[in-house]
Amino acid sequence: MDTSEDFSQYIRWREENGKTICLECGAEMLYFREGHCCGLKCTKCENGIATTAPIVTDPTAYAVALKPSNRSAVGNVRLIANIAGVNWLQAKKLIESAPSEIFRGQALKVQGIKNQLEAAGIKYKIEPEFPY
Ligand SMILES: [Zn+2]
What we know:
Layout: E1 13-16, E2 19-22, E3 28-34, E4 37-42, E5 48-51, H1 54-57, E6 62-66, H2 74-84, H3 88-96, E7 100-105, H4 107-120, E8 124-127
Antiparallel strand pairs: 1-2, 2-3, 3-4, 4-5, 6-7, 6-8
Helix pairs in contact: 2-3, 2-4
The structure holds zinc ion.
Residues 22, 24-25, 27, 42, 44-45, 47 line the site of zinc ion.
């Protein structure tokens, strides 16, 4: 099975204030488990995924931490505030006092955050090692 599959290509979501937000309708998306199948689904619309893929069934809580040397530019602070669910000042502090943890959670959510951080050019690390 391909463990490097990028689910963000066909479900659209982002992490905001500790919640997973549907980019189709803006409602919260919830992680669910039904038998051997797990997924992420929107509480309002049809956006979502149900799969037995490892990234979705992986029970590990991954920690996402900022590396030192990120600039506390406006866009970066806004993104970190959204991901970590903190206010502007706290987000700025997280960047300036790095290494600092900004998120801990399920692999699929971590993948979404990873994509957001990479798109913004922010340096981070994930522990334990993120295999996706
Ligand atoms: Zn939705």
